[in-house]
Amino acid sequence: xxxxxxxxxxxxxxxxxxxxxxxxxxxxxxxxxxxxxxxxxxxxxxxxxxxxxxxxxxxxxxxxxxxxxxxxxxxxxxxxxxxxxxxxxxxxxxxxxx
Length: 98
Known about the structure:
Blueprint: H1 10-21, H2 25-36, E1 43-44, E2 49-50, E3 55-56, H3 57-60, H4 71-85, H5 91-94
Antiparallel strand pairs: 1-2, 2-3
């Protein structure tokens, strides 16, 4: 059986980011572009960071309740992390490389 793949454009991803992050839309887009190039299938940190926002599983696995490769899930969880931990949860923000 073949699983359907939901292809989401960069424009759609940016729209989701803006809908979730509201007044921090531009900052979120810059941070997540640097983290993953807005690639919903990105895997980093030796397999520990997943999706557009590069959610670091060892640090946040107790918060994951959806497929982190799905853009909306990943971005909504990133917002929860941002709200609870600030932008410092992302190394590109801490290092000012965004």
